[in-house]
Amino acid sequence: MGFRYQRSMKLMPGIRLNFSKSGVGLSLGVPGARISISPRGRVTRRVGLPGTGMSWVSSNAGRRRSSAATGSAGRAHSAEAASPVPPSALPTPTPAPAPGLFASADERSIVRAFKAKDATTLTTVAAGGSKAAVLAAFYAALVLSDAGDDRAALHVFEPVWRNIPDIDRDGLFAKYAHHMDVTVQICDSAKVQAPGSRDTAGLLLAELLQTAGRPADALEVVRHLTWGPAAAMSAADLMCAMGDWDGVVAVTEGMPADTDEGALLWVMRARAFRLKGMLDAAKECLAPVLSSRRRDPAVRLPALLERAEISLSLGHPAAARKDVESVLAADSTSESAAALLMRLGGPRAESAVAEPPPASVD
After folding, report:
1. Is residue 246 part of a domain?
2. pTM to 2 decimals?
3. Quick one: pLDDT at residue 30?
């Protein structure tokens, strides 16, 4: 059973302020006709006949979430629930809630700035130390990263992450970030989309640290996140960048290959075994990944390239060429496939057809 707290204070005849755990609301009217405004801005109109028990109620729920989103409100979201998907399959992010009736000036400012992608305002509020600083820093990191300025995004967000042990407990972060969809690139072949949370913010920070050439610091961040496919994939990608092949084998141990995110982990596992010189083990890792042609190209193409590398290491250039050409048939812009093809001797030389000499003119 949940407990509710509500208290009201009369300002003048017909007008009252209502206090509750969620904030301050307002109600005004006379017996039989009243309008109430909730702390979240919801407007309720009630008209009735005093003494009869009969009334008519309407509510403006313009800022209410769908039932699915409402059911998830207040729950802590983790990287476990995040599902890496190809960029083309990412759904459109849901809009954040609007500020309530009595929102602070900083709260209103950063909400407007985020909608306008105004990184300057967001960075200023983040450095100001107000109650809106955590959300402002998170918003600024998203805007700056999206604009390609990862260095500035790291500069504004890393101090907040270091100084606030659990940003999920921040009031404004929970109000806005928990109800928006955040997309983070966690490796070359996958993005992760999940509600904003400490885990999602950690994945973003890890990506920014890796881009800044600090993979060890990035890995330390990931190790403190809720463990799941997304965190495991980020960790494996960082370990690949650091050449820690034993670490890659360890973090991918026991991951199922029946999902796309699990299959990508098995591709990383295969690469680790190959670079450890365990070619048969590497080849076995790719068998469940390539057993179905219905795999998403974001998974299947890296798996084919890895199998080509294994075939080349085993001394089977013809098999390697076949896989490389399959990748190029699906994605002719693949630089990795083109580079591997050049190592195989370049494209096959086509038989030249001699053109007949031009007819002599007398």
Report:
1. no
2. 0.65
3. 64
